[in-house]
Amino acid sequence: MTKIIAVISGKGGVGKTTLVSNMAAALSKAGKHVLIIDGNVSGPNLTAHLGIPETHPITLNEVIKNEAYILHAIYQHPLGFKVIPASMAELQAELGGLEKHLARLIGVYDVILIDSAPGVNDEVRAAIEASDEVVVVTTPEVPAVQNAKMAVDFARTLGKSIAGVIINMQRNERHELKPEEIERMLETRVLGVVKEHSKVREAISKAIPVYALDPYIRPSREIRRIAHLLLEESPPKESLRERIISLLKAEIHINIR
Ligand SMILES: Nc1ncnc2c1ncn2[C@@H]1O[C@H](COP(=O)(O)OP(=O)(O)OP(=O)(O)O)[C@@H](O)[C@H]1O
Ligand SMILES: [Mg+2]
């Protein structure tokens, strides 16, 4: 059965697109059929994160306007997953009705991830309404979590269950909120904590998911774990060699900070 998950946030720039593109890379590497959708029609950037040409001939925008069939808007990414981009040329677009179009894809994919716009508005509402469940992303700062609470409440008002929260860009600084505090504030479980890491930014500058650039660093491994958790399964077992490389990478990162 296809699981449709909307990835939302209260504040912008907390890492939704980064997490969506990396979860797609990790799940696809594990043999899952994955589709990701740029549900941020007012500020699309999934294509930039993934090196997809901006001039994709058919986008989500045409699908929503009933000018194209959803199957014709699907782009095959070289890493194995599929992508539906949004148009860079039309930032006032609507997203309403997405649900109806996605109904045509049920059964084709193991998971469909919708990279939502931030905040609480009609665009986010459409992404939430099209999903089975919602994941909220936040950084561990008070304003981001307060806004995340608004997004969580919005999804709950729309009758969606919250799969959990992903804490991104954790730096382990003393002023940061702890996962238990975030769990309490949002009244939802923490799915995982992704560290802030320069490799993530390096990967974005190269337009590839960090999981593909370096699957052994902690953020890649954590994103992979979270992605499988969302499918209610454990990630595939790592070989001894993979575990040793990961340990060495974690050690090097701690030492150079
Ligand atoms: N784990 C991380 N470590 C380091 N930098 C990160 C990490 N995650 C995200 N970033 C940085 O944060 C920026 C914003 O991330 P991203 O575009 O994924 O956020 P977003 O929530 O999708 O934003 P928007 O709300 O505008 O769509 C990235 O370009 C990158 O520089
Ligand atoms: Mg984004």
Keywords summarizing the entry:
Rossmann fold, binds adenosine-5'-triphosphate, 257 residues, 8 strands, binds magnesium ion, single chain, alpha/beta, eight-stranded mixed sheet
Q: Helices and strands in order, then pairings?
A:
Elements: E1 3-8, H1 16-29, E2 34-39, H2 46-50, H3 60-64, E3 75-76, E4 82-84, H4 98-102, E5 111-116, H5 122-129, E6 133-138, H6 142-157, E7 161-170, H7 179-186, E8 190-195, H8 198-205, H9 210-213, H10 218-230, H11 240-256
Parallel strand pairs: 1-5, 1-6, 2-4, 2-5, 6-7, 7-8
Antiparallel strand pairs: 3-4
Magnesium ion binds next to helix 1.
Q: Could you walk me through the main structural features you see in this protein, from its secondary elements to its overall organization?
A:
40% of the residues lie in helices and 18% in strands. The chain is α/β, with parallel strands linked by helices and 257 residues long. It has a single domain, classed as P-loop containing nucleotide triphosphate hydrolases (Rossmann fold, 3-Layer(aba) Sandwich). The termini are far apart. 45% of the residues are buried. Residues 16-17, 40, 45, 115 line the site of magnesium ion.
